[in-house]
Model the fold of this input.
Amino acid sequence: MSTTLEMAKSWIDEGREVALATVVETWGSAPVPVGGHLAIDSKGDFAGSVSGGCVEAEVIARAEDVIASGEPELLEFGVANETAWGVGLACGGRIRVLVEKFG
Amino acid sequence: MQKNTLTAVLDARRDRRALVLITPLGGGDEELVSEDGLDAGHEHAAILGECFRSGRSKIVETVKGELFFQAFLPAPRIMIIGATHIGQVLVRLAREVGIEPVVVDPRTAFATEERFRDVDIITEWPGEALEKIGLDRRCGVVCLAHVPDIDDEALGAALDSDCFYIGALGSSRSHAKRLERLKEKGCAEAEFGRIHGPVGLDIGSVSPAEIALSIIAEVVRDLRTAPGE
Done:
């Protein structure tokens, strides 16, 4: 599935700081299944996806914080909880995303 | 994920080995478990076994908090019998959807590196080639040679296995003749319904590329709707 991980590896090998976002749970309609990956580097370059594009911008922004702090974060998105990060999923589903820096 | 975990996951994918990564969502050290090295006494042996079987990742609530079990299974494969023009496109489409292609054709004029770059090519007869590979339920077999001797041999091997997809190029009429031949060879008639012939979803394909597209769509459907997926 993910050449995203190969991309992340090549970025790390170039000496870039990289975070990985992983879909850990989905409810209802979700375009990316559990185990889907989005890799983000400290300049905001990214590869892969955790949704159909609805929450990527937010995940990328949070990933920059994770790269800076080194502390993982667990994010939740969805119509049922749309106030959490200010963005929701238009598809009506809900997802949880783990964002970690490659240590 | 640790950098050395990432390297191990990519190595395992290349070598077709299965891994499960256990990540505590509340923080803490991750653990990478290999299917080969799975200890029956592991505290999560049952969940790990299920992940290795189904390939599904999931969260499990434990006394230590939520654990995310992430399965990394070898990619499903399709054996493309016949190094034809349709086969060339099918190799590329399969890769795009995460299915690993293997090309089998004893005709060395067809199965050249020039025509099939960066893909495993086996220039043996299908019976021998498929036996060597070992067809399992994460394999599909697509017969495109359009040469009865070659395709029929592959279909015999596919019908004897529990591969998730079997398809054979040809019209309904040539498919009927094919089934007659397979019957004469003593293949199990009860299994004939597993063969998609004509091959591929009916999307009105005309060109080789369009036929390859209809085949890969059918392969994905069968893969995703198979028990355990």
Observations:
- DSSP finds two helices and five strands in chain A.
- Helices of chain A lie at 4-13, 56-69.
